[in-house]
Design a protein that fits this description.
By secondary structure, this protein is mainly alpha-helical. It has 16 helices and 2 strands. A two-stranded antiparallel sheet has the order 1-2.
Length: 445
């Protein structure tokens, strides 16, 4: 049977969201190293720089779940300009203040703005994507983050130069420029949230407890996979220069290697749809995490630069799978009316990983050696591959030859119903129930 065309907007909203995310993420990726350089110019030691960087991730931990709650029961779009304004303000004021506590505070504001933007954007993608579009749309959405992560550090390096007073001036300039870059994102934020999907969102009687969300099969797996992938990306970015120093690899070469990794991640997300058709989402997620774990551990080996470049390119491609598919895993598994909260919990896990992983890597590197953190991350990614095999929860089997319908983020409007399936009933959580399945409640819902 062929369903009628899906009404509503095309994919223009997604393109505008990707463009806005690229500018916002580019500004953050540009500002974070600039903050560290400016703090050093103001007399900070390594510990103070670490504290300032940690505030960026710590402050959002306290507001992620309340923001997710608010988004579950309201519109998502207002969080986007709010996030842009907070990022721009945090960047600009970090470049203007001259005290380390003030820099730490504005770094936290920057992190809060990034959290607001990402929660709002991810919720829009989840709300406005049909089940079969979720993997593709989340993959394209995260291209914006990859573009920002690719261009931001290069732009910061081009602007920041000199020592002493010159370093203070150039790092302040980079922060002011990053504020302007983020403000450009405002030009792409119109007509992103479609009113029909906002009006059609499910109405729930009360809040779903966090414990219930975390106890739903599939949600913890999605969160842990996301943490493992993001930790690998962060540690790779932070510690590859240290590995390069030990192996006499020039800083410019290390920068090119990191850019190669980011470019491979973008390439992966561009071909996400054919990969899913070829392998299936569970096999793709599991295989990519397993291969990424082996390659991450392989970075610890004393290989030549060309071999390292090939390893990092394949590693970047594999790491490109985990984030978008973990978003879909969380969205499909989360209870009805709590999907934004579940995405916020996923972001909370990411922030915890960003705080804990560098600290653990530093301790391990100091005690065992600079290559040891990569082995640990490899073990974590292999464990994430095992989580990927467990399935997603709340996704019952579909009849042979039919389109999978699990995990829909919104109730299906009447004008979108597939012909000759009027007898099909909606399961709790907005997931259409398989007409051949029994009518007993699903576990973990």
């Amino acid at each position: 049977m062929t369903g009628r065309p899906r009404p509503g907007p095309g994919r223009g909203w997604l393109l505008r969201l990707v463009i806005a995310f690229a500018f916002a993420q580019g500004a953050v990726s540009m500002a974070r190293p600039a903050v560290s350089y400016r703090a050093l110019a103001l007399g900070a030691d390594e510990t103070a720089v670490g504290v300032i960087a940690g505030v960026y991730a710590l402050l959002p931990l306290f507001v992620a779940v309340p923001l997710g709650r608010r988004t579950d029961h309201g519109r998502c779009a207002p969080l986007l300009p709010l996030g842009v304004l907070l990022i721009s303000g945090g960047c600009a004021l970090s470049g203007l203040v001259s005290s380390l506590p003030a820099m730490a505070a504005w770094s936290g504001v920057m992190g809060l703005g990034h959290l607001c933007f990402v929660i709002g954007a991810q919720s829009i993608v989840a709300r406005q994507s049909a089940p079969r579009e979720q993997d593709r749309n989340f993959g394209h959405f995260t291209i914006g983050a990859s573009l920002g992560q690719l261009i931001g550090p290069i732009a910061a390096g081009a602007l920041i130069s000199g020592q002493g007073g010159a370093l203070g001036r150039t790092s302040a300039l980079a922060l002011l420029v990053s504020a302007g870059v983020c403000a450009v994102a405002l030009t792409s934020l119109s007509r992103i949230e479609h009113r029909r999907t906002t009006d059609a969102r499910p109405r729930t009687g009360g809040k779903v407890p966090v414990r219930t969300i975390l106890g739903t099969r599939g949600v913890p797996a999605g969160i842990l996979i996301s943490m493992a992938v993001l930790s690998a990306t962060d540690i790779l970015t932070a510690y590859l220069p240290v590995v390069g120093e030990h192996r006499s690899i020039a800083p410019a070469t290390v920068g090119l290697l990191l850019s190669l990794r980011a470019a491979a991640t973008i390439a992966c997300r561009l071909v996400m749809t054919p990969l899913l058709r070829l392998l299936g989402r569970r096999a793709l997620l599991t295989t990519s995490c397993l291969l990424a774990g082996l390659l991450c551990a392989g970075v610890a080996l004393p290989v030549s630069v060309p071999v390292l470049a090939v390893m990092l390119a394949v590693l970047g491609f594999c790491l490109g799978v985990g984030q978008p598919l973990s978003m879909t895993t969380v969205v499909r598994a989360a209870p009805d009316g709590a999907r934004s909260t579940a995405l916020a919990l996923r972001l909370t896990g990411n922030r915890l990983g960003q705080v804990a992983a560098p600290a653990a890597a530093g301790l391990i590197a100091g005690a065992v050696g600079v290559a040891a953190p990569f082995v640990l991350l490899g073990v974590g990614l292999v464990a994430a591959a095992g989580l990927g095999l467990r399935g997603e929860g709340r996704t019952g089997p579909a009849p042979a030859g039919s389109e999978p319908a699990e995990g829909r983020t919104e109730p299906v409007p009447a004008d979108e119903a597939v012909s000759d399936r009027s007898s099909r009933r909606s399961a709790p959580g907005g997931c259409p129930r398989d007409r051949h399945a029994d009518r007993s409640p699903r576990s973990g819902g």
